[in-house]
Automatic annotation (TrEMBL):
Organism: Leuconostoc suionicum
Origin superkingdom: Bacteria
One matching Pfam family: Penicillinase_R
Family: Belongs to the BlaI transcriptional regulatory family.
Record protein name field: Transcriptional repressor CopY
Amino acid sequence: MNKLLTPSEWEIMRVIWTLGEATANQIIHIMNNQKNWQPSTVKTLINRILKKGLLRTDGATRNRLYTPTVGEHETMTQTLRATIDDMCAMCIGHTLLDVLADMTLSQSDITKLQALLEQKMKNAPESIACNCLPENCEDCK
């Protein structure tokens, strides 16, 4: 999946992932309550997501049921990877530190992160080379 979602499309997908499947009316009702979005806005977003192939329908003409074709975790991981791939390789670690500092994580997640970092430390290079244009590269530290 390299069809990235816009922030508004994420909102729609989160509703569908949470419910497992949903009709347009269900999504419209939820988005109207949460974001005060109009039905036409929600329908436009659903159609965009359908065109990206991230939703499927049951084929009904009335009360059409929408089901995700991709998992939430998979989509989150691929979206984050695509974003990181566009960053300066030398700055990724610093950026992750900034983001993690502001996040609320469970103790279980922190334990898993610590274990992963300990494992990665065994083969980690001393530094990461910049992959930007050489004349514009600045240290991110």
